[in-house]
Structure formats: structure tokens, C-alpha cells
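User: Hey, my collaborator sent me this sequence without any context and asked if I could get a structure. I don't really work with proteins. Can you help?
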Amino acid sequence: MALDSDIRDSLEQLHEAAFVWSVSCARGDREEAKEILQSAYMKILQGKATFSGRSSFKTWWFAVIRNTGSDRRRKATYRKVLFFEWLSGTPEARSESPESEAIANDQARTIRAALEELPERQREVIDLVFYHDLSLTEASDVMGVSIGTARTHYHRGKEALRDALDKKEADYVSA
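Assistant: No problem. I've predicted the 3D structure and written it out in C-alpha cell form, which is a compact way to encode the shape of the chain:
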């Protein structure tokens, strides 16, 4: 995809500041900052991030960098969790007893039931982020809402889900 000359010029003018911001988003890791910035540039080239003019170009560009860094951290954390689960033993050693498998299935059903009680938008954004591994930005695009709206539903949904699960746990303990 060919970049508009104004966008290309703006990116060139902001490159140094963008790298400094990327280092901040990478929590000081310069190599990770390079990866974040490269990924952010790729989002623009691939048309996944487009400037709509609703803010200044710099604000938009720094948000793309921040979101890219957040996405990379979230995905890296997810990969680490899966890796440590894999390291916990051979498949045979990791296989669960019928009791623990039943407990895990019961917990999954409890979480799904609590999710079903949420308002539609909250349930949808949580489902997209947690079960489909989308970023909030991607989820907002899927839902056809602004990122701010998606963020609001996401945070309210997490709080409501936490409250519902805490209540179910309290009911279980008192029974």
C-alpha cells in the first residue's frame, strides 16, 4: 500500500519522538521498542491503522504505538502462560484426574453462566478479548463502536463478571 505523502512526511517528522515513546511503551527495552515501532508501521502500511483526523496526527500515531505495545505484552503473557503449562509435565503427567477435570468443567460452566448474565455489549467485548484473543481496538472494530466505548464495556463487564463470580463463590461457601 502506498502511503499518502502527508502521512509519510508526518511519520518521518515524528520518527525520533515515536521511538522515544516506543521505548517508554516497552518499559525501557530498546529492542522491544524497535519491534513495537516496526509493528506499528506495519499496521499503517497494511491499512489496519488509518488516520481519520479526529485528533492530531501525533496523538493518533502515539496511540497506535501504545496499543501495539499493549497488544504485544498481552500476547507475550498469553504465550508464557501456555508455555509454562506445557512445561509443567508430559501430556500424561498433565492429564487431570476425573475429579479435577470435573471441577475445571464446573468452573468453566460457572464462568460461562456469569458471562451470559452480562449485558450484550459487555459480554461481546469480553468474549472477543479473552476467548478470541483480539485487542480492544480490534474488538471495537468488530463491534462497530469507538475504542472508548469498547473500553468502557470491557471494564464494566470485567467488574460485573468479578462481582458475579464472587457472589457465586460466597453462595457456594455458605451452602
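In plain terms: Confidence is low (pLDDT under 50) at residues 90-94. You can pass these C-alpha cells on to your collaborator as they are.
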